[in-house]
């Protein structure tokens, strides 16, 4: 087990370096941070040179990247161009997005798995067909469309929930945004659960469980579910990273001041330290979520534990 | 002791429901009945994977409806003038936000442009981005993935690592960063970006199916008979590996269209004067409380387009592999 | 035949009478079981012999009540367990019988055991569900069970998962699970087919020994004539969803009364016939969606006459406790 974790951690290193370097390259090599900093004004040459030196901008790109990574390892994400520490921005933004992600995950788990189990157990019946069709439709509606439509209907027209979110972003205000963020993944979870349940319900061990004289309820909850949910748990785990990265659209619709909002602002203003810093943290979250999934997989499926 | 009941000697065993020793087998055998008509059945000769799939698809209403919708979309993408006589760029600010009126069934948007005309013309950008990006990603992905699967070794390992790197970047974030430094608002940077982040997905599928096809007995036999690598790949492996790629690419086409709209919505994808549903939805979003019609028409068109491609891919997959149903 | 069965009914554990099962698929109805009748007494071993598609497993599944439905449906007949018809019994009372009074052993223990549950939990579940035992007591009983089927270090291995056992040990666990509540009847569906030849004999011996000890009825479904000879009391040979011959095991081996049985016996290689070509029954079994009229075996039968193509032979009584569904059973018998 320990060796397995270490091997996975080692495999993550090149992916981490590659992903962050790619982002670093896009921001620093394709864009011009100095020009962005001064906006329309012509930069004062002396100031520009000083900033260039501070950010190692006059050195080759790989050296800049190394400097940057060395700073990050000491917890220093640099300073945004407006003078704010990037870590300060993160401290305010990440808890908000984390709450939003938790709400979205709850929707995926509670609604997605329930619908998937129901339709998987009634394969080919009308419940199944309608759930399948519904998931296809949900997958087809881009988040920013479903976001605005739900915000308009539930928030504005019917007034069930608050259409916008206060800066503190408590859990109860995040229910609708969380649902919007979850929708596409929720449809995938439903379809995945359904397929998995339908496949496993024909497995030999389920037939054995029935032959043991267990009640249908026990067959489903103790034998069928545990096996069927292994791929679903895997998907939901890897989705954590995707949700946090994808929150950018949802946060914009509901004006939530989370990671997506800060990133969006950073990108629009070409605020390079903010952008690279936030993306780096998101990549780390994504990789850690994948590692977590691998470990969870080993816990859920004893067959791969000693492989 | 030779087994008089050896199922290998008994072709009927595979299509006879019931006695495989398992109730579960009975079901799967029942299904194999649907896919493998016995020799001499139906039209008298064994059908290939593709003609078999086509036989199923022709009778599948999901396939027919989504196919017709896509044909229609492609048609108006090429010749929008066929059903919309106006000019999407000629707008009258005085009419901004007005609702439906004669000659303008969908009303006007925030700039006073005709929503109907803009919705029709918006198909062009979406279809263009979708088709070009999918073609690019599918070509790049299947060539790289196919070669990795075929030759294996270090090339395979390299490709997997590189694909992992691209998977590590959240796609919308990557789009924002990459496209925010591009000033052109045309379709090409968007297409380029989608190809850049889309190929790893296709390459994984292509690699997997090539690895599977490579293990088939007839491919091993061809190799034993001295077929060269190139001939093996083109004649024996590619035809079998191409089906999963087509399925995934069709579904991806739908998601790429949604991605383009999302990026345009965020202001980094297509930019005016290009007409795009994403831009129109973004503009309309500020006025959703007063004039929801401005948002609903392009949003509806976008969703139907994405849905049509995803359903088409879904139907093709079901026809090619009934086990996945 | 009928009368004999009526007389025996009181002491028979299980009476299957004229059982019919069909599978309704999109491409037609497959008649998998077409009027099967057999019985098992306590302490008796009945071997049901037949090839894939003969309906032997489907019959067992219908008896057990674990037929996949749809597509499988029982369309007629009775399954009397101690005189009570299981097919008309309520679902809940039938469930209570399953595992407790009638237990089943499946062919492939690896796929038939739950891969993500420890074997201890899977065994203990029997006691928890059927007898309301506490988990702790149930685990203790599970350990005893594993010891009973001679799994070494039973206590420690309770925590292991199915994939951590060898094929033979896994099948012992399946046997232990079937044995847990000391059922009256065990149905073993090809219990040794998936095992190595050397292990096959061990597992079969264990099963036979336990059956004698608990005086259980045993239905042994198999296609292996070798297994049958050692352990069975009686044999029922199935073909295309019907019983074509039933007889005490030694009588059947000595002189089969059905050409199909004869063909099966002849296709076993024998040392005293070394050098001669091995006999094989010509042709293939019929498709269950399209069973030929008359005797279903007629297209493959060396003895077939016109009557075989038109009249379906009933089960003729050959001798007390023997029957054959062949118009020419006498000729077949005499030839042996």
TrEMBL record, chain A:
InterPro entries: BPD_transp_1_N, MetI-like, MetI-like_sf. It is a multi-pass membrane protein. One of its GO terms (cellular component) is plasma membrane. The keyword Magnesium does not apply. Residues 94-297 form the ABC transmembrane type-1 domain. Keywords: Cell membrane, Membrane, Transmembrane, Transmembrane helix, Transport. Pfam families: BPD_transp_1, BPD_transp_1_N. This is Oligopeptide transport system permease protein. Belongs to the binding-protein-dependent transport system permease family. It is found in: Cell membrane. It comes from Streptomyces netropsis (Streptoverticillium netropsis). The chain crosses the membrane at residues 12-31, 98-119, 131-154, 174-192, 224-249, 275-300. GO terms for biological process: transmembrane transport. The keyword Transmembrane helix applies.
Automatic annotation (TrEMBL), chain B:
One of its GO terms (biological process) is transmembrane transport. The keyword Transmembrane helix applies. InterPro entries: BP-dependent_transpt_permease (IPR050366), MetI-like (IPR000515), MetI-like_sf (IPR035906), OppC_N (IPR025966). Pfam families: BPD_transp_1, OppC_N. Gene3D superfamilies: MetI-like. It is a multi-pass membrane protein. Residues 123-313 form the ABC transmembrane type-1 domain. Keywords: Cell membrane, Membrane, Transmembrane, Transmembrane helix, Transport. PROSITE patterns: ABC_TM1. It is found in: Cell membrane. The keyword Transmembrane applies. One of its GO terms (cellular component) is plasma membrane. SUPFAM superfamilies: MetI-like (SSF161098). Belongs to the binding-protein-dependent transport system permease family. This is Oligopeptide transport system permease protein. It comes from Streptomyces netropsis (Streptoverticillium netropsis). The lineage of its organism: Bacteria, Bacillati, Actinomycetota, Actinomycetes, Kitasatosporales.
């Amino acid at each position: 087990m320990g060796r397995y974790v270490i091997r996975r951690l080692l495999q993550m290193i090149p992916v981490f370096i590659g992903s962050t370097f790619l982002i670093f390259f896009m921001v620093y090599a394709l864009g011009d941070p100095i020009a962005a900093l001064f906006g329309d004004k012509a930069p004062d040459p002396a100031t520009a040179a000083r900033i260039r030196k501070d950010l190692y901008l006059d050195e080759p790109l790989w050296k800049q990247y190394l400097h940057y990574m060395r700073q990050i390892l000491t917890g220093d994400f640099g300073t945004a161009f407006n003078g704010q520490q990037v870590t300060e921005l993160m401290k305010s933004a990440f808890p908000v997005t984390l709450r939003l992600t938790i709400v979205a995950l709850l929707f995926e788990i509670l609604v997605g798995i329930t619908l998937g189990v129901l339709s998987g157990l009634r394969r080919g019946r009308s419940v199944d067909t309608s759930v399948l069709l519904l998931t296809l439709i949900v997958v087809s509606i881009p988040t920013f469309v479903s976001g605005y439509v739900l915000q308009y209907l539930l928030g504005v027209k019917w007034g069930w929930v608050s259409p916008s979110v206060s800066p503190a972003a408590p859990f109860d205000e995040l229910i609708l945004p969380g649902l919007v963020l979850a929708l596409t993944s929720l449809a995938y979870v439903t379809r995945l659960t359904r397929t998995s349940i339908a496949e496993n319900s024909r497995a030999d061990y389920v037939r054995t469980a029935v032959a043991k004289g267990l009640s249908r309820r026990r067959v489903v909850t103790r034998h069928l579910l545990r096996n069927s949910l292994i791929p679903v748990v895997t998907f939901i785990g890897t989705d954590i990273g995707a949700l946090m990265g994808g929150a950018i659209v949802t946060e914009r619709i509901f004006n939530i001041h989370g990671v997506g909002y800060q990133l969006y602002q950073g990108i629009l203003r070409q605020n390079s330290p903010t952008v690279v810093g936030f993306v780096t943290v998101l990549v780390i979250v994504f990789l850690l979520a994948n590692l977590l999934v691998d470990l969870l997989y080993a816990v859920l499926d004893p067959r791969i534990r000693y492989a | 002791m030779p087994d008089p009941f050896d199922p290998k000697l008994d072709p009927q065993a595979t299509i006879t429901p019931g006695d495989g020793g398992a109730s579960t087998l009975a079901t799967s055998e029942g299904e194999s009945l649907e896919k493998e008509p016995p020799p001499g059945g139906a039209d008298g000769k064994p059908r290939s994977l593709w003609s078999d799939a086509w036989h199923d698809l022709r009778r599948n209403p999901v396939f027919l409806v989504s196919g017709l919708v896509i044909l229609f979309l492609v048609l108006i993408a090429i010749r929008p003038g066929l059903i919309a006589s106006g000019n999407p760029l000629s707008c009258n600010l005085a009419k901004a936000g007005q609702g439906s009126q004669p000659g303008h069934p969908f009303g006007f948007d925030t700039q006073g442009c005709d929503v109907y005309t803009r919705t029709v013309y918006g198909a062009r950008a979406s279809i263009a981005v979708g088709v070009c990006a999918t073609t690019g990603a599918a070509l790049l992905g299947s060539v790289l993935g196919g070669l990795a699967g075929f030759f294996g070794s270090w090339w395979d390992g390299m490709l997997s690592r590189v694909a992992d790197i691209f998977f590590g970047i959240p796609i919308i974030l990557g789009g924002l960063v990459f496209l925010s430094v591009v000033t052109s608002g045309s379709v090409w940077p968007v297409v380029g970006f989608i190809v850049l982040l889309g190929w790893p997905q296709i390459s994984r599928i292509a690699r997997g199916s090539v690895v599977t096809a490579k293990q088939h007995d007839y491919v091993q036999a061809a190799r034993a008979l001295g077929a060269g690598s190139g001939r093996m790949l083109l004649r024996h492996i590619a035809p079998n590996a191409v089906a999963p790629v087509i399925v995934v690419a069709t579904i991806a086409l739908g998601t790429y269209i949604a991605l383009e709209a999302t990026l345009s919505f965020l202001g980094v994808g297509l930019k005016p004067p290009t007409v795009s549903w994403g831009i129109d939805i973004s503009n309309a979003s500020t006025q959703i409380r007063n004039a929801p019609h401005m948002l609903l028409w392009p949003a509806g068109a976008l969703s139907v387009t994405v849905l049509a491609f995803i359903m088409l891919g879904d139907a093709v997959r079901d026809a090619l592999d009934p086990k996945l149903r | 035949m009928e009368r004999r069965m009526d007389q025996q009914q009181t002491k028979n554990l299980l009476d299957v009478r004229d059982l019919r099962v069909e599978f309704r698929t999109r491409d037609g109805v497959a008649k998998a079981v077409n009027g099967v009748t057999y019985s098992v007494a306590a302490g008796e071993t009945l071997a049901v012999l037949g090839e894939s598609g003969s309906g032997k497993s489907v019959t067992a599944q219908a008896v057990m009540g674990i037929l996949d439905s749809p597509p499988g449906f029982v369309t007629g007949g009775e399954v009397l367990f101690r005189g009570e018809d299981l097919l008309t019994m309520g679902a809940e009372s039938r469930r209570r019988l399953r595992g407790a009074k009638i237990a089943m052993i499946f062919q492939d223990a690896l796929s038939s055991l739950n891969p993500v549950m420890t074997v201890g939990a899977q065994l203990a579940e029997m006691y928890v569900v059927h007898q309301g035992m506490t988990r702790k007591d149930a685990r203790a009983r599970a350990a005893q069970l594993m010891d009973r089927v001679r799994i070494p270090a039973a206590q420690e291995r309770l925590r292991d998962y199915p994939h951590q056992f060898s094929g033979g040990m896994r099948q012992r666990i399946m046997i232990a699970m079937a044995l847990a509540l000391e059922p009256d009847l065990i149905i073993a569906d090809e219990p040794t087919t998936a095992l190595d030849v050397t292990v096959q004999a061990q597992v079969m011996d264990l099963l036979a020994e336990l059956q004698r000890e608990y005086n259980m009825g045993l239905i042994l479904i198999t296609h292996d004539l070798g297994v049958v000879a050692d352990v069975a009391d009686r044999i029922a040979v199935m073909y295309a969803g019907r019983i074509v011959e039933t007889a005490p095991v030694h009588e059947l081996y000595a002189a089969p009364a059905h050409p199909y049985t004869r063909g099966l016996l002849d296709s076993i290689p024998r040392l005293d016939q070394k050098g001669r070509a091995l006999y094989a029954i010509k042709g293939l079994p019929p498709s269950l969606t399209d069973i030929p009229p008359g005797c279903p075996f007629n297209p493959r039968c060396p003895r077939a006459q016109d009557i075989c193509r038109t009249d379906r032979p009933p089960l003729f009584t050959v001798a007390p406790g023997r029957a054959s569904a062949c118009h020419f059973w006498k000729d077949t018998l005499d030839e042996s």
